[in-house]
Amino acid sequence: MAEAHQAVAFQFTVTPEGVDVRLSREALKQIYLSGVASWKKRFVRIQNSFLTGVYPATPSSWLAVVVATVGSMYCRIDPSMGLIGHIQHYVPSCRYLSFQHRTLLSAALFSTGVWLSGILLCRQSLKLLLSYHGWMFEPHGKMSRSTWVWAALVKVMSGRKPMLYSFQTSLPKLPVPSVEATICRYLESVRPLMEDEKYHEMEGLAQAFKQHTAPRLQKFLVLKSWWATNYVSDWWEEYIYLRGRGPIMVNSNYYAMDFLYVTPSPWQAARAGNVVHAILLYRQKLDREEIPPVMAFGIVPMCSYQMERMFNTTRIPGKESDTLQHLSDSKHLAVYHRGRFYKLWLYHGGKLLTPRDLEQQFQRILDDPSPPQPGEEKLAALTAGERIPWAEARARFFRQGKNKVSLDAIERAAFFLALDEEAHGYEQDREDSMNHYAKSLLHGRCYDRWFDKSFTLVVYKNGKVGTNAEHSWADAPIIGHLWEFMLATDKFHLGYSEGGHCCGEPNTAIAPPQRLQWDIPEECKEVIDSSYRVAKALADDVDFHFFQFTTFGKGLIKRCKTSPDAFIQISLQLAHFRDKGSFCLTYEASMTRLFREGRTETVRSCTKESIAFVRSMMDPARTQMERLQLFQAAAEKHQHMYRLAMTGAGIDRHLFCLYVVSKYLGVESPFLQQVLSEPWRLSTSQTPQQQIKMFDVEKNLDHVSSGGGFGPVADDGYGVSYIIAGEGLITFHISSKFSSPKTVSPTPGLAGRRLPWG
């Protein structure tokens, strides 16, 4: 085959006349170009590390300081007040350095010291400014004079054209709240959910904990906050995610969907070509730090550290704890189609494959008639089942030979791509079309997604796309940032030909994707089948409903001077009460990325104020004005709690870390055990959008996002994700379990079941 010959750089043959050496110029050219591209990438990383390290200063500012200092010396003005002469005294004299040269060198060293001191001063000043969060608690649309001055100073100190990681060292550390404040807020959050006897018992446990156990635990936690970059994130990643031994499919991984109404191309290979190229362009910008940091309200930088592991990252199973394997680079993609695995090189001649070249490669995979090898089809079910069997199977059956080579190709890939055989997406004449789409992205067939990869891109037969993301390495807004860039680039920048194919002409000389080879013994097949059965039972138990609310959107809510998020959270409380006739502990995720290496915090959105409003809605004797006043009080309370969570004054991460410290010290705390065992029967999250404004949603209403979702956290609870997609659209992703008689995700047309949205 031609591609096989091109893969050989040189050949030699021993003949009676000697050794005949034949070089392949094309192969050597490709090797040379790949090397040049690798060295360019290394140089860019070194350059970016330097520029980020001296931000908000620039190399030109250093030169300006040196020139100004040397110029003043020639004017017989000593800006150093004798320090340059003192430095000159310690510069070794030699025949190559005249007195004038030593003076210039001393002036340059002094200037560099002044320049570096200025950088440190600016960073510390910016860190102090960013530690102020009073701006978040001011009334919407109003800004006090002190906040206006603060915002102006932040603008000045932030510099111009920051790179992705420019602000990392200027972000403040997450503060450790006082034990008294945390316990007070906790008791306030559970008071409306507990009977008097249960509450007084909990209050007693809390007081005993505060007086006897907490002071010692708090000291260790404060010590960690001084030493570590973030006192929560490493423990959160390890104990909440990596040490979980149950399946990560459904229980941890989450998904994101395509445009709701639009499918840019109906051709599977073409859509995959454009989408993969757009994702690789994003990775290129990420490597070069050309993506600007996300700024809250356009002023306050948010932490970007989670973006570091977006690509080339895989969760590796272990018996006691998993680990995250992250590579600095990966030049290939792992692809799954119809039970077969492939390795697809993303570069040719040191350059990214064009969308048309990628389309050609994916079409070659789709046209491949070869059947799966024995045990290959359901191999990925290992990543969907329990973690310990997967860890043992990996250590036993994938440590050597072709199995190790093929597994390495998957785990060391930039990301995982599944070319799905099904067609999914919004169909107006099928009420359940989006429900099936959601379930397909959440768990698929339990063996056609590699759930351990940082994310699996899914491209369906009809050109629709979606993704399934592993949760330990980052939170949903990070994938959301990539997803927005990908969708906008695919549709509005790359585009398609009239026939729906990628633009341009393919390079037919590119070698086809490499089929991965496996030698899976019977014992391994049994483990695969066992993992598949566990995953299949879990997937079949998930009840999912995608709900489009089109009566109004954020426009009307904002005109009522109410936060859209608070409006929806209070509405969910009303819906839950109508469904179950009771209230429950409610989890809403918020970000703590105002702090360095911040991840999430919990907003306990079931409050006594929201309960009072819900009860007024169920009481026909209450007037509309009374209900409105109670609603406004509930919305204000929710906003206040959300702001507390974002500014490091939340409840649950502090209590979680105190619990971890207690375990390390061997201290038993009935209070902490009770707190951390309480189930979240209503788990909610808002999908962020328009983090990067590459197109105007209001001018392209048919290009609204469908958002994403996740599985239920509690067996007898609901998982609710929502996205405020526009002025007139809010979409909900609602999950529960069929096995629970206490829940039912609302399904239109399902006779005999009352919908909580009514």
Keywords:
758 residues; alpha+beta; Chloramphenicol Acetyltransferase; 4 domains; eight-stranded mixed sheet; six-stranded mixed sheet; globular
Topology record:
Elements: H1 2-6, E1 10-15, E2 18-23, H2 25-54, H3 59-74, H4 83-90, H5 99-130, H6 145-157, H7 179-190, H8 196-227, H9 233-242, E3 254-257, H10 268-287, E4 295-296, E5 300-301, E6 313-316, E7 323-326, E8 332-337, E9 340-345, E10 347-348, E11 351-352, H11 355-367, H12 387-397, H13 401-411, E12 416-419, H14 433-442, E13 455-459, E14 465-469, H15 476-494, E15 514-515, H16 522-540, E16 542-549, H17 554-559, H18 564-580, E17 586-591, E18 600-604, H19 608-618, H20 624-646, H21 652-665, H22 670-677, E19 682-686, E20 708-710, E21 718-726, E22 729-737
Parallel strand pairs: 8-12, 12-13, 17-19, 19-21
Antiparallel strand pairs: 1-2, 3-14, 3-20, 4-5, 6-7, 8-9, 9-15, 10-11, 13-14, 16-22, 17-18, 21-22
Task: Describe what this molecule looks like in 3D.
This protein has 758 residues and is α+β, with helices and mostly antiparallel strands. It has four domains: 2-53; 56-161; 179-239 and 544-737, Chloramphenicol Acetyltransferase (2-Layer Sandwich), CATH 3.30.559; 245-540, Chloramphenicol Acetyltransferase (2-Layer Sandwich). It is built from 22 helices and 22 strands. The relative contact order is 0.11.
